[in-house]
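Worked example 4.2. Below are the chains of a multi-component assembly; read each line carefully before continuing.
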Amino acid sequence: MSAVLPGDPAAAPTLPDVLPPVRRRGAVMRFVVRHPTIVAGGALIGLMIFIAICAPYLHTVDPTALAPARRTRAPSPQYWFGTDMLGRDIYSRVLYGSRVSLIVGFSVALLASVIGMLIGLVSGFVRWTDALIMRIMDGLMAIPGILLAIALMALTRGSVQNVIIAITVPQVPQVARLVRGLVLSLREQPFVEAATASGSRFWKIAFRHILPNTLAPLTVQATYICASAMITEAILSFIGAGTPPIIPSWGNIMAEGRALWQVKPYIVFFPAIFLSVTVLAVNLLGDGLRDALDPRAAGRL
Amino acid sequence: MTPAAPILEVRALAKHFPLRRGLFGGATGKVHALDGVSFSLDRGETLSVVGESGCGKSTLGKTILRLTEPTSGEVWLGGERIDNLSVGRLRPLRRRMQVVFQDPFSSLNPRMRVRDILAEPMVNFGLAKSGARLDERVAALMDQVGLPREAMGRYPHEFSGGQRQRIGIARALAPGADLIICDEAVSALDVSVKAQIVNLLGDLQQALGLALLFISHDLAIVEHLTHRVAVMYLGKIVELCDRRTLFTRAHHPYTKALLSAVPVPDPLARRERIILRGDVPSPINPPSGCRFHTRCPFVFHRCRIEEPLLRPVGGGHVSACHLDAAVAADTEKLLPHHQEGPGAHSLGSTDPSGSLPSALGQTPDLRWLDHARPGPPN
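Applying the procedure described above to all two chains together yields the following structure tokens:
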């Protein structure tokens, strides 16, 4: 067998590298490249949670300590974000205020998801309750969420728990609608019929077959609820219907700085920046989760 | 019941879906998905149900399984009437009849591992006492359908279509069913995979003595695995006979048209094609008389006014066509009188001509339904 000589037509010409060499990446880097929004959103939320938890150790002072002699100071090495009209350190107040926002945001997302999911499950599964429950949900949805929350706050005393409840109630119908729709389409799936045929009871079908398949869209919805709850909390505090003024929250700080915003804009500016960045982070996370969990539904929600 | 009792007997089964319009609208009409379907199925036997899409094949399967409630008629499973049982009373009986669905992608819960999918029926029916026993059974099922045991811990999306259909079959086998309803079980698969699954079903039937109700629109597949064939058109069985008779001596014009549409893998073969014109009429308002008369090439006056009943045309072969009436008129006189019993039920709608035994105060015999018992195919 003779060796193939160069120039022999039988020899394959040396092919150029058409495909660039594949770079090997670690698992972490691959995740970052594939889901940049999840990583960015998650990192920002992680930072906010860190700030909220470690607020006492981040060079802060008592956020409620009054110092009438040092009112409305501009940002300086001593007061990083300046002081408000009662001389309180805005940096400390903004950092402590993140606690309220995060607690309200996450609690509302969790509560609204769980309650809405149960209502949606019953409504989608027990046919005769469907019309009744959905009309009640329609009724709740007909009232603007913020008005309903203000009304609920007017009925009760201002406290973080009451704010959470007041924001949760208007959010529940949206989750219930979402879950009901998912249940209605899932219950007709062949795998649910197969489960019925193989003797599964009603509750087993609901909790083992239907529920786990609603979790992905529900998680995405929960992030949006979280973001909107943070904004609603700030709005309620801003108009004085939310967290009591003693507790520093971003809404409260902005409400107090409102009168001076033309002359001392930093009082409003810093809590507003924190609020915007946090809401942006939660929305980024939600968008990323939506694309990652269910590519088909990417355009729907 | 005697041991010879059929595993499944369906008597005059009907399913009408009400049509609702508007917000508070009541029923403005109904879809006649099934109308007076009767047949019986023995242990270890395969009965195929064929017909165009929309003829009620799948509704038949679902109604037998009580996944939809029947409008009227009876379903007897192994000598027990199941169509009127409460959900709780029916549940233990579900163990005996299982289902394999068409779409191998939507028939498996995407969020459950294969082990859990297969274990579910066994847990429901209390068939395995311990977790180890359950794993053993699941492993045995995986072997039985030709899947690697290691795949137990995987999710359905990690399998190909054919493998998923094997999982679906394993799930149907899990509770030790006597009857498996295959609702277009191979229609969504590639040709080569289709053949594997059909062979698997045949092997399992031989090994376990399963009865199969094989719902399909594909006569070529049916020819390979069935004992008897029921041809459906617009919610009714128009012809029922054993496989060989169907492919050689079909009586009903609709069956002939279906058969002439089966591709023959011979470029030189020349045969008579019967091409049906028009679409299947709406099952909301089925045609008067014979439901096939709008498309039948041999239609005559009687077809438009009078509904033909299923008549025996010899050798356990029944066909619902007025063309057979001459033959049937002779056979009817020979029908033995049948005693009134749980098995007695009129077939289909009444015959306005009054020529049938039902109009004479007698009950038509159902025995012709199970006369022909050919051996296993091939």
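Take a moment to check your reading of the output against the notes. Chain B touches chain A at residues 62, 65, 67, 91-92, 94-95, 97-99, 101-103, 106-112, 120-121, 124-125, 168, 171, 174-175 (CB under 8 Å). Chain B is about 30% helix and 20% strand.
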